[in-house]
Design brief:
By secondary structure, the chain is α+β, with helices and mostly antiparallel strands. The protein contains five helices and 15 strands.
């Protein structure tokens, strides 16, 4: 008997590969905090006065110190649920299963939002700190000047202190990375890499400058200084008046994304009252903080350069 199956209607249980850039800010995620309230942890700030001239006639100079207990409250509270009807699971050969929904949601929503929260928070802190922000038209970056511009950024304020400690990471747009790759101001190493078909590819991307790792933000929809976290379709989008980030520098010692709650629940049909299907629920309570230094309690470890044009 001939095979009469309509192959166009045969469901493939495998999902198409999701091509999105992974989490870029994972080095800044920490769970090493001491919680003292439902959504609050404390950070101790301390400063001291310095030496004074010693008198050989006796006595000691009195100094002062200040210690402040500062509370930080986590406010980025997000949740979602999906109901997968039993018929959808059967008819699609389980491609709509909770496992696949969870994987797609994490890749396409959670990962970009984690980065967007970090980038925008650090950018706003930098823009509120004199000497740690600038504004440059994206077109003003060229292969002739990009190296010098990035060197200048890494020398701003007290960033040299953190650069020497090896705790800075620089994030740049793909366009800036392209121009840096073409710059003639320094010598780069060209490495040969194997590609899938067995041929040879040439890898020339710059990954470090003066000991500071440089990370390219390919999926740049997460690379703005301000976001609207409540668009009609869910997720997030650049806020009106937001600016695209050209370059962002963050410090692993003082910039932290702090997760408080990460809950995922899965209920089989009959175990809930939402309908005849599988129920997936996901909640995340987290936030990003930029801490001051321990000397004078000032923020001096971040920098942002944004595009001059704003989102309409």
């Amino acid at each position: 008997m001939p095979n009469t199956s309509n192959y166009a209607e045969v469901w493939n249980s495998e999902l198409l590969e999701i091509l999105v850039q992974g989490t870029l800010t994972s080095p800044f995620v920490t769970s090493n905090v001491r919680w003292v309230g439902a959504k609050t942890f404390h950070f101790t700030q301390m400063s001291t006065s310095g030496y004074k001239n010693h008198s050989r006639t006796g006595g000691w100079n009195a100094g002062t110190y200040a210690q402040t207990d500062v509370p930080f409250t986590v406010t980025h509270d997000r949740d979602i649920e999906f109901l997968v009807d039993k018929a959808d699971v059967d008819e699609t050969n389980a491609t709509a299963s909770a496992q696949n929904i969870s994987r797609v949601f994490e890749q396409t929503q959670v990962v970009p939002e984690t980065d967007a929260l970090f980038f925008s928070t650090v950018a706003q802190k930098a823009k509120a700190t004199e000497g740690y922000f600038s504004s440059t038209a994206a077109a003003d970056y060229t292969k002739e000047n990009v190296f010098g511009k990035l060197k200048t950024i890494l020398s701003a304020g007290k960033l040299r202190r953190y650069r020497a400690r090896g705790s800075l990471i620089m994030y740049v747009t793909s366009d800036i990375m392209d121009k840096l790759e073409q710059s003639t101001d320094f010598t780069r190493k060209i490495e040969l890499t194997q590609i899938a078909e067995g041929g040879i590819g040439i890898e020339t991307r710059v990954t470090e400058m003066d000991g500071v790792p440089i990370m390219e933000v390919i999926d740049d929809e997460r690379f703005y200084d301000k976001f609207n976290w409540e668009p009609d379709d869910g997720g997030f989008e650049p806020a009106t008046g937001a600016h695209k980030i050209n370059v962002l520098v963050a410090c692993g010692e003082t910039c932290k994304t702090v997760p408080k709650i990460s809950s995922i629940y899965f209920f089989a049909p009959g175990a809930h009252t939402k309908g005849d299907g599988y129920l997936y629920q996901n909640r995340s309570l987290s936030d990003t903080f930029v801490f001051p230094n321990g000397k004078d309690n000032k923020i001096d470890s971040v920098f942002v350069d944004t595009d001059t044009s704003a989102v309409a």
